[in-house]
Amino acid sequence: MTKRNIYLEDIPLDEARAKLAAALAQAGKAGALPGERLPLTEALGRVTAEPVRAARSSPHFHCAAMDGYAVEAARTASARETQALPLRLGVDAFPVNTGDPLPENTNAVIMIEHVNQADETTLLIYASVAPWQHVRLMGEDMVATETVLQLNHQLRPVDLGALAGCGHDSVLVRRRPRVHIIPTGSELLPHDVEPARGQLTEYNSLILSGQAREAGGEAQVSDIIGDDEALLRQALAGALADEPDLILALSGSSAGAHDFTAAAIGALGEVLAHGIAVRPGHPVIIGMAAGIPIIGVPGYPVSAALTGELLVLPLIRRWLGLAEPQPATLEAFSTRKISSPIGDDDFVRVALAEIDGRIRATPLQRGAGVITSLVRADGLAHIPRFHEGVDRGGVLKVAPYQPLSAILETVMVMGSHDPMLDLLATHLRLRSAAGRLVSVNVGSIGGLIALRRGEAHVAGCHLFEPDSGTYNLRHLRTYLRDEPALLLTFAHREQGLMLPEGNPLGITSIADLRRARYVNRQRGAGTRVLFDYLLAQHDISPDDIAGYEREEFTHLAVAAAVADGIGDCGMGLRAAAEAMSLDFIGLTWERFDLAIPRRHLENAGVKALLEALRDEDFKRELGAQSGYRSDETGNVVV
Amino acid sequence: MTKRNIYLEDIPLDEARAKLAAALAQAGKAGALPGERLPLTEALGRVTAEPVRAARSSPHFHCAAMDGYAVEAARTASARETQALPLRLGVDAFPVNTGDPLPENTNAVIMIEHVNQADETTLLIYASVAPWQHVRLMGEDMVATETVLQLNHQLRPVDLGALAGCGHDSVLVRRRPRVHIIPTGSELLPHDVEPARGQLTEYNSLILSGQAREAGGEAQVSDIIGDDEALLRQALAGALADEPDLILALSGSSAGAHDFTAAAIGALGEVLAHGIAVRPGHPVIIGMAAGIPIIGVPGYPVSAALTGELLVLPLIRRWLGLAEPQPATLEAFSTRKISSPIGDDDFVRVALAEIDGRIRATPLQRGAGVITSLVRADGLAHIPRFHEGVDRGGVLKVAPYQPLSAILETVMVMGSHDPMLDLLATHLRLRSAAGRLVSVNVGSIGGLIALRRGEAHVAGCHLFEPDSGTYNLRHLRTYLRDEPALLLTFAHREQGLMLPEGNPLGITSIADLRRARYVNRQRGAGTRVLFDYLLAQHDISPDDIAGYEREEFTHLAVAAAVADGIGDCGMGLRAAAEAMSLDFIGLTWERFDLAIPRRHLENAGVKALLEALRDEDFKRELGAQSGYRSDETGNVVV
Question: Judged by CB atoms within 8 Å, which residues 547-566 of B form the interface with A?
Answer without folding.
Answer: 550, 554, 556-557, 559-561, 563-564, 566
